Amino acid sequence: TLVVDVSDSGRQIPDTLFGIFFEEINHAGTGGLWEELVNNRGFEAGGTRVPSSIAPWTVVGKEPAIFLETELSSCFEHNKVALKIDVQCDKCPSDGVGVSNPGFWGMNIVEGKKYKVVFFVKSKGALEMTVSFRETEGGRILASSNIIASASEVSNWKRMETTLEADASSSDSSLYLTTTKKGVIWLDQVSAMPVDTYKGHGFRSDLVNMLIDLKPAFLRFPGGCFIEGQRLRNAFRWKNSVGPWEQRPGHFGDVWSYWTDDGFGYFEGLQLAEDIGARPLWVFNSGISHTEEIDTKDITPFVQESLDGIEFARGAASSKWGSLRASMGHPDPFDLKYVAVGNEDCQKKNYQGNYLAFYKAIKAAYPDIQIVSNCDASSKPLNHPADIYDYHTYPKEYETMFNNADVFDKTPRNGPKAFVSEYALIGEQAKQGTLLGAVSEAGFLIGLERNSDHVIMASYAPLFVNANDRKWNPDAIVFSSNQVYGTPSYWVQFMFRESNGATLLKSQLQTPHPNSVAASAIICKNSQTYLKIKVANVGKSPINLKISLKGIESSEATKATKTVLTSADASDGNSFANPTKIVPKRNPHTSAGKEINDILPPVSFTVFDLLI
Ligand code: AHR
């Protein structure tokens, strides 16, 4: 029996409670949310040295008709590698020789859509090139455009731009840059993007819409381990990720083991937050990687970098770093109010010293910024000042995940607030996203709602996975070049999306199964006021549930709906073949009144919505 006191004035849940955490992991951004189709657009993936790794570019044609070589001859100061294409054929094959790029496991080219292709080129002699999208298998041409320039126009580096409109579709295509003319061509910074990205900001719309549907209150970004690096030289550093895309050096993210051109950089993270209506929460490197630590006495440059980053986000357009933001198309400040010093670094020798240096400098310059410490204060007080502390939990047993609901029950309320910035069931029971994992997380989130006088933010991790690069399982959103689906964990977050800013009512659950059933009741105010009751049953048996509404006349609760996330098999998940196997199913519910009687299926998450 769940007794809900509807006459209770309740307590407001922070409007920041449920948000999302975007990390560059699993090709989430590069080859994912960031809709750059070209993989390794600057031929830099082997680092700024030659020979560099041009993979996944491949040669079109064979020696001796064509020779490829990487050279340090680019016009771009921070990414010197360029590709030299030496075309030796007097009579070249009619469909040309050159290079092709399959993108990230195949480019998705859609009939009728337009694609902007930009590249930098230099040539000995006049230039005659064809830019095309071709199906990777078989070479069917989907879109094509010719580029012609006189010798004098391209004797030095020149930016070329063309828009291709596809007259056929394939989700496994490549970009081709080819020629039938003998001569030498240098290429660098080759980009291909659909013209219709989300708000024209470069994001893949189908993936952005999945985020918007969660109504996230905040966006934590860009990591995670990504901001730490195994080695400091491979950590994400914001200054290398801003300004014109073609001038960004890119870097090898050595924790998740892939190259990124950093097209999705610091600016794009801030822009994404704004576009989806979420508050940005920027995580920066604390002078600590997985294997190295900067001594606190030497931390000043890192501190300055964080201050500059804040100025970039919210400084006046006339300020040094604010003017760079303005030049990128955003003269108004971004609404940056939260920063986190490092990720999972609390146990590192220099963390506390480094943290304090960041804390003091940021508070002095920006007193309103809320600073997140990596040190867990859920069971003992911190020995340093912080507004918020990080809490990460990745249990492998669903019972542990579910019962983590009470982890903050006893935390003293006089310290910093908690940010559950990463949570998920992982391992055998969670696989690539199971119902069992999701329902155990629902139980945990009900506990967070109950403790939301202390826990002010929570986000699942990781958010995205490109199915071709599963570095971490499970994830909330799975995609390929042309498909996307939410795992059951995604749908649980979806079912909590009305909690931000809602009123939590007093409710009492009387059950012989306290370790497998959890419930909460909130009042939501959108266009209408309604009571939302959520019940998670992670047990293997059905449960007879009686909801008794106190303080309401039986006629007051008029219309009810019931939304259920369940499946016959708790180890089920969604897939590209069956993307909606486990999604919330909504039905009218007839027994609304002072009392609701229902049967909760085994391993299920049920939401009752009652207009009151
Ligand atoms: O979410 C995946 C990883 O888990 C994050 O990068 C890190 O913070 C945690 O260890």
Automatic annotation (TrEMBL):
Has UniProt tagged this entry with the keyword Phosphoprotein? no
One GO biological process term: L-arabinose metabolic process
Which reactions is this enzyme annotated as catalysing? Hydrolysis of terminal non-reducing alpha-L-arabinofuranoside residues in alpha-L-arabinosides
What keywords sit in the KW lines? Answer: Hydrolase, Signal
Q: What is its EC number?
A: 3.2.1.55
| UniProt keyword annotation of Methyltransferase present | no
Which intervals hold domain Alpha-L-arabinofuranosidase C-terminal?
421-604
In terms of domain of life, where is this protein from?
Eukaryota
Extract the SMART domains matched here: Alpha-L-AF_C
Give the residue spans that cross the bilayer: none
Cited InterPro entries: Alpha-L-AF_C (IPR010720), ASD1_cat (IPR055235), GH (IPR017853), Glyco_hydro_b (IPR013780), Glycosyl_Hydrolase_51 (IPR051563)
Q: Which GO terms describe its molecular function?
A: alpha-L-arabinofuranosidase activity
Entry similarity comment:
Belongs to the glycosyl hydrolase 51 family.
This chain belongs to the protein called non-reducing end alpha-L-arabinofuranosidase
Q: Which organism is it from?
A: Phaseolus vulgaris (Kidney bean)
Q: What does the organism's lineage look like at the top? A: Eukaryota, Viridiplantae, Streptophyta, Embryophyta, Tracheophyta
